[in-house]
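Deliverable D2.4 — example input (structure tokens):
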């Protein structure tokens, strides 16, 4: 009974203040500690890719890979652009050289390249032999054609045949006269021959004359003369054999 009376008396006591204490089941984490844990977790996951998140700037691994992959085509595009530019520059240079060679013969570029491809023409060795040191051949192809030499040394024949040089040499002149074509041939520095009265000439100035190849042709309508000179002086010291071969008398 006394307990019931005490509880009833307590209910009638006025209450001015009330402190209520709530026990938390778990401690709430501070924001700074949570951020640090997130950063450490990201860094541990990205160690294999050498990418570290620093502070609040966390690098996204997927986005970085995309940027790396997109940078490769751009680099290739720049390299291809440089190759195209170099090709265009080479084409322009080649075109400039061609146009220069066509329209400006004495340009610096033209002179430079001409000097690279051209060589000096070798000077032919001079033949200082005397005419008497040379062996001569017949000047006609047909032994039936009779060749004669007068007292001045002019050899003459009339007949249809091919005409040869008495020995090898270089053709100096070919000209046409009243009696046909004339051919002047130099054999050495002092010895030369002039064949006149040809119906046709087979050689031109600058050609090499051979004693085995004809230099002209005679139709037999006019006489053909062969005059041999030593330093401009007509040579008469020779004879003509039965086969029209020429033999020196010195």
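Example output (designed residues):
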């Amino acid at each position: 009974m006394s307990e019931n009376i005490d509880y009833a008396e307590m209910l009638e006591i006025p209450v001015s203040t009330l402190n209520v204490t709530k026990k938390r089941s778990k401690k709430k984490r501070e924001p700074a500690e949570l951020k640090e844990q997130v950063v450490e977790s990201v860094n541990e996951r990205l160690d294999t890719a050498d990418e570290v998140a620093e502070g609040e700037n966390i690098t996204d691994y997927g986005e970085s890979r995309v940027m790396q992959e997109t940078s490769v085509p751009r680099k290739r595009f720049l390299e291809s652009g440089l190759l195209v530019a170099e090709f265009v520059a080479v084409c322009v240079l080649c075109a400039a050289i061609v146009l220069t060679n066509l329209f400006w013969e004495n340009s610096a570029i033209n002179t430079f390249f001409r000097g690279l491809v051209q060589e000096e023409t070798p000077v032919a060795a001079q033949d200082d032999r005397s005419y008497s040191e040379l062996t001569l051949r017949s000047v006609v192809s047909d032994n039936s054609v009779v060749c004669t030499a007068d007292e001045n040394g002019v050899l003459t024949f009339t007949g249809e045949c091919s005409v040869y040089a008495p020995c090898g040499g270089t053709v100096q002149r070919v000209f046409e006269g009243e009696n046909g074509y004339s051919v002047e041939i130099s054999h050495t520095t002092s010895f030369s021959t002039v064949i006149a009265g040809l119906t046709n000439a087979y050689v031109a100035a600058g050609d090499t004359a051979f004693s085995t190849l004809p230099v002209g042709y005679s139709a037999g309508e006019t006489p053909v003369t062969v005059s041999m000179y030593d330093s401009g002086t007509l040579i008469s010291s020779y004879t003509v054999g039965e086969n029209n071969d020429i033999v020196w008398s010195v």
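Confidence is low (pLDDT under 50) at residues 51-59, 118-124.
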